Amino acid sequence: ESAEKGSYRHFMLKEIYEQPQAVQRTLEDRLAADHVLPAAFGPDASTLFAKVKKIQIVACGTSYHAGMVARYWLEGLTNTPCQVEVASEFRYRHVAVQPDTLFVTISQSGETADTLAALRHRQDNAYLASLTICNVGTSSLVRESDLALLTRAGPEIGVASTKAFSTQLVGLLLLTLAIGRARHTLAPAQEREIVDALRTLSAKLNDALAISATIEAKAQLFAEKNHALFLGRGEQFPVALEGALKLKEISYIHAEAYPAGELKHGPLALVDSDMPVVTVAPNNALLEKLKSNLQEVSARGGQLLVFADREAHLSEDEQTQVVNMPSIHPVLAPILYTIPLQLLSYYVAVLKGTDVDQPRNLAKSVTVE
Ligand code: G6P
């Protein structure tokens, strides 16, 4: 086991550092000069994608958070209506299926019981087709879906998912671009711009990993705390959810994520100096709104840790610590901002001395209900 970990102390840290290469593999052979090759999803995928009018995503845990990011991409970039639901709910309720809906599952293992049951028990004829974004080629989900895109993250050992998540996001962005092209709802100039940005993603992730020592130092803020709040807006809200999940899973600190605009509808009542607030603040259209949300927190004595684009010009004060992130194309920001949140939860867990790779009560793959 120690041999496989190489020089890393834990599998989780190794897997965090593998993300630039993993993402590169996910993109390999799947990009033409200015578009995504639809064959990446299986034969005739583009004919099928042209018929798609709606997308239903079903997944669990971290994979569900990837699906939530994809909804912002699919609706925002390709005007394709999209719903996302956890599999344990979806499988047991009557779903009103609209015509020409593509059924999409997301899973690292391809064996999660609820996700598999959702695929098997969906009102079969009602859907146009099924597609899975999955890391294991021989898995049940891949075998039983009409189309599949393998994420090629390589084996993930740490129970807390890291490289599986970032590669799922890449796979879902490829799906978004392929759907937008087939449906003629994505402007070619924007398509090319995102494809170009994808080619530099791996290097950007390396830049984000390079600030790990800064993040390690910030972990001190959390080691003695019992609660933490994570904030994000837009497609960064699911990134905040994923950051909170990571902290819960491996450091056993109670963490919640909120869309920053919802602060005043409840969580603000909890904010004091004992509840650190983590925020992801890329330089996007919602930045100014986010800044005023941050003021709401500091006015109540909250301690802020903000991961921000250096162009966002966020300044530090007694209550606000800012970690500058590399600039990136806004569409790819959720992938980049995932990295510091993974590192943060990792270093907090190390400080607390928990079993990082095998947190108590959790399993890597939940194959029974
Ligand atoms: C478990 C794991 C999570 C994972 C979830 C879904 O809870 O601990 O890391 O996100 O299952 O697993 P899947 O293999 O379907 O992505």
UniProtKB/TrEMBL annotation:
It is found in: Cytoplasm. Catalyzes the first step in hexosamine metabolism, converting fructose-6P into glucosamine-6P using glutamine as a nitrogen source. The keyword Cytoplasm applies. Residues 45-185, 218-359 form the SIS domain. It catalyses: D-fructose 6-phosphate + L-glutamine = D-glucosamine 6-phosphate + L-glutamate. One of its GO terms (molecular function) is glutamine-fructose-6-phosphate transaminase (isomerizing) activity. Keywords: Aminotransferase, Cytoplasm, Glutamine amidotransferase, Repeat, Transferase. The active site is at K364 (for fru-6p isomerization activity). Homodimer. Signal peptide: none annotated. One of its GO terms (biological process) is amino sugar biosynthetic process. One of its GO terms (cellular component) is cytosol. This is Glutamine--fructose-6-phosphate aminotransferase [isomerizing]. The chain holds residues 243 to 611 of 611 of the full protein. Its EC number is 2.6.1.16. It comes from the Bacteria.
